[in-house]
Specification:
GO terms for molecular function: ATP binding; DNA-binding transcription factor activity, RNA polymerase II-specific; protein serine/threonine kinase activity; zinc ion binding. With 207 residues, this protein is α+β, with helices and mostly antiparallel strands. The chain has eight helices and five strands, in the order ααβββαβαβαααα. The chain has three domains: 38 residues, CD2-Gal4, CATH 4.10.240; 93 residues, Phosphorylase Kinase, domain 1, CATH 3.30.200; 51 residues, no CATH class. The structure holds zinc ion (2 copies).
Length: 207
């Protein structure tokens, strides 16, 4: 999929840098000494932003057996197995409100930001995949793959376990939010507190 309307290079876009659009190397990439790339294709440029091990095309399949567990405004989440046997959550972007190029830009940025995070209360991004390659009949779209968390979000967990003292769980969330807000490449604001709870408190749910 090409993003013809974006004159920004991929490298600047995912880091929210101002891009002068100079080719073959923009000024920001030149100054920061990162590879400059204008190839927005899912089978090349986008995957090259990430370490090779994060390319999960061929490692999982969304077909019978993949259970759709959430359908938000911009994405669906599926629960499925990787070929290695572990259960993963696969988030597929279906953003019909924005132009496809803009939706792709935002999804790539989310994946890039997420893969930079390293905190014990934040579920890691295992990798990315192309929906067209992991789902028969699927169209080219970015998928984000993370470990499946069986206990759901913290509110569900506390309802199911009324004897659990919630303060340590809340402190884990505060720790994760504080990490995001003081992130070394600039503050990250999580726009969905429900999501943040589901994503973050999970380590401690089993403690
Ligand atoms: Zn640039
Ligand atoms: Zn650049």
């Amino acid at each position: 999929m090409e993003v013809s309307s974006s004159s920004r290079c991929l490298s600047c876009s995912v880091r929210k840098w101002r891009c002068d659009g100079a080719r073959p190397v923009c000024a920001a990439c030149d100054q920061q000494q990162v590879p400059c790339c204008y190839d927005w294709s899912l089978d090349k440029g986008i995957f090259e932003l990430f370490p090779t091990r994060m390319n999960l095309n061929g490692m999982l399949a969304l077909e019978r057996g993949a259970q759709q567990v959430a359908n938000g405004g911009f994405a669906r989440v599926y629960r499925t197995h990787r070929k290695t046997g572990d259960i993963v959550a696969v988030k597929v972007f279906f953003d019909h409100k924005r132009p496809p190029a803009r939706a792709l830009e935002l999804s790539v940025r989310e994946a890039f930001t997420w893969h930079c995070l390293d905190h014990r209360n934040i579920v890691p991004l295992l990798g990315i995949a192309d929906y067209a390659k992991i789902c028969p009949g699927g169209f080219p779209q970015l998928c984000l793959v993370s470990p499946w968390i069986s206990d759901g979000n913290i509110m569900d967990y506390l309802k199911a376990n009324p004897g659990v003292y919630p303060l340590p769980l809340l402190m884990d969330i505060v720790s994760a939010v504080s990490y995001l807000h003081s992130f070394r490449h600039g503050p990250i604001i999580h726009g969905d507190l429900k999501g943040i709870i589901a994503h973050m408190a999970v380590d401690q749910l089993h403690a």
